[in-house]
């Protein structure tokens, strides 16, 4: 039966994608999107700041949420096609330094260590002594997945196959970069399912599994995507964004919803409760505003799971909504004026692994730094004042240096004392030491912005996949009866591509 009225709870990227695709799939259904904030987009937030230095002035684009996307998400490519965003794309080729050069800053050392970018560079890498023996040994290690294990931590998985040191240095750094979490708590099956599957395909060996042809493995995304010629534009692309930042996705989706005759978008509408209507299968949604409750036949919730748990009547609680621990991150956007020698080496940026002693109060608390101007300089618009005093616009890019430091996550002491632990006088010496340059070669920043992103990335803990299956099962039964779907970063993957796909798949069974 076609739903009469679908309510989408939450106007982040998952909710926007859900409302957009539901409106296309059910043109005769009413769709209402409810968002508690005045703006839509959730964690997608791109803002321009104006900086001047002598005769140079620039509008520099800063991101306080996601900043780059990967072309492997068909759901995202489809959205780019459907929303006509191809001309706004900014792409980084796989051959550029921003794609091939990534670094680690290993606590206790000065400067950066380049990560090998090819099998050949592995042999000349300073990390060769750690990496080569563990890679050569892995295919010969007997299958050692614990009997009947249906999940384990990412750290335990990598330690089992590649050794403890590889797990601490590489595994923890990777998890800092994506989830801002402790790899000893993160579920390998939920966060890195391809590794878990490769071990199974390789009959115990991850490397054998990757080498084995994946004939039997179908893309989980399927083939029914409307991609137009966006796939062509993505040939040879490592990462991409948009001229006006990632928030472009949210603003264009919001515009498309505004023009859809069957969709109503209601911002500043905080959902405060859900209640089953007696004698009917409808659900009443209470709102914090003085408005009467909204009655819906179907609901897609894209709210953070802990928020959803507070909205349910005590007679109808759902399992596992509070099992996932969200990470909090301090994002520091810094813009430096032009310098005669580059501030950082060409590359995407660096990650900082878990220190040997673990997450103690003595740690610097930095998770990593992204060299934004390396991949995203085309977002910045430069104006050069001529002698007549008139400004002429040119897009040159790269003359100012913008970068983003990320702190916090499992370094909780930073989060407890953000204002004192993130001052320029603390951060700039840390940055100089990580980059291996004297502090005196860092000019005073033109812009230094600190944003605390509280509970922003749901880091799935061990057992997440099973728990989410149980949650889905519970939603099929009882009064829920398959009419409520729960999706979003806390359920499936956290990447923007995962969220867009989750929104696209919502309500498929209706
Ligand atoms: C700092 C940072 C960097 C990131 N970097 C990347 C990256 O480079 N690439 C990438 O792919 N991904 C990245 N991510 C991940 C990605 O941005 C998020 O996982 C994704 O945006 C989550 O979208 P969502 O819609 O599921 O959740 P949210 O964005 O949290 O949306 C939920 C919405 O619900 C609203 N809401 C909450 N409670 C209520 C209520 N009671 N009533 C009504 N509305 C409510 C919220 O205001 C919000 O708008 C990053 C995330 C962060 C925080």
From TrEMBL:
Q: Name one GO biological process term.
A: protoporphyrinogen IX biosynthetic process
Q: What is its main location?
A: mitochondrion
Q: Which GO terms describe its molecular function?
A: oxygen-dependent protoporphyrinogen oxidase activity
Per the database record, which ranges form the Amine oxidase domain?
13-506
**Name the UniProt record assigns to this protein:** Protoporphyrinogen oxidase
Alphabetically list the UniProt keywords.
FAD, Flavoprotein, Heme biosynthesis, Oxidoreductase, Porphyrin biosynthesis
User: What does the UniProt entry say about where the protein is found?
Assistant: Mitochondrion inner membrane
Reaction(s) this enzyme catalyzes, per UniProt: protoporphyrinogen IX + 3 O2 = protoporphyrin IX + 3 H2O2
């Amino acid at each position: 039966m076609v739903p009469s009225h679908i309510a989408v709870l939450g106007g982040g990227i998952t909710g926007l994608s859900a409302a957009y695709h539901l409106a296309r799939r059910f043109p005769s259904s009413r769709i209402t999107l409810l968002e508690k904030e005045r703006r839509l987009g959730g964690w997608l937030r791109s803002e321009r700041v104006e900086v001047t230095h002598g005769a140079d002035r620039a509008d520099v684009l800063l991101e306080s949420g996601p900043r780059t996307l990967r072309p492997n998400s068909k759901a995202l490519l489809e959205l780019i096609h459907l929303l006509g965003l191809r001309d706004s794309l900014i792409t980084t080729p796989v051959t550029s330094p921003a794609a091939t050069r990534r670094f680690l800053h290993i606590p206790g050392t000065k400067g950066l260590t380049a990560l090998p970018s090819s099998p050949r560079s592995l042999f000349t890498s300073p990390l060769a002594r750690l990496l080569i023996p563990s890679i050569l040994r892995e295919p010969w290690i007997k299958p050692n997945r614990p009997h009947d294990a249906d999940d384990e931590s990412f750290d335990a998985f990598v330690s089992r196959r590649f050794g403890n040191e590889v797990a601490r240095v590489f595994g923890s750094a990777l998890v800092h970069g994506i989830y801002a979490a402790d790899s000893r708590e993160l579920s390998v099956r939920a966060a890195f399912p391809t590794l878990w599957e490769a071990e199974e395909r390789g009959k115990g060996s991850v490397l054998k599994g990757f080498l084995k042809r994946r004939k039997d493995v179908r893309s989980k995304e399927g083939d029914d995507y409307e991609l137009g010629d966006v796939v062509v534009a993505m040939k040879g692309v490592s990462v991409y964004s948009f001229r006006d930042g990632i928030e472009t996705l949210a603003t264009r989706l919001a515009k498309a919803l505004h023009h859809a005759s069957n969709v109503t978008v209601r911002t500043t509408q905080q959902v405060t409760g859900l209640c089953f209507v007696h004698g009917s299968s409808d659900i009443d949604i209470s709102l914090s505003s003085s408005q009467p409750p909204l009655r819906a036949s179907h609901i897609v919730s894209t709210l953070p799971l802990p928020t959803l748990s507070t909205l349910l009547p005590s007679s109808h609680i759902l399992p596992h909504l509070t099992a996932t621990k969200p990470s909090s991150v301090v994002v520091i956007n810094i813009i430096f004026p032009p310098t005669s020698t580059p501030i950082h080496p060409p590359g995407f940026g660096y990650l900082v692994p878990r220190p040997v002693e673990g997450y103690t109060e003595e740690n610097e608390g930095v998770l990593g730094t992204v060299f934004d101007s390396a991949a995203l300089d085309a977002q910045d618009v430069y104006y050069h004042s001529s002698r007549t005093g008139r400004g002429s616009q040119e897009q040159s890019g790269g003359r100012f240096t913008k970068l983003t430091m990320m702190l916090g996550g499992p370094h909780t002491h930073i989060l407890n004392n953000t204002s004192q632990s993130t001052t320029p006088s603390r951060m700039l010496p840390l940055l100089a030491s990580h980059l291996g340059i004297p502090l005196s070669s860092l000019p005073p920043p033109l812009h230094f912005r600190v944003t605390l992103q509280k509970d922003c990335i749901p880091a799935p803990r061990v057992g997440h996949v099973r728990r989410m299956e149980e949650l889905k099962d519970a939603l099929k039964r009882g009064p829920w009866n398959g009419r409520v779907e729960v999706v979003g970063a806390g359920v499936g993957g956290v990447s923007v591509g995962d969220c867009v796909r989750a929104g696209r798949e919502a309500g498929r069974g209706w």
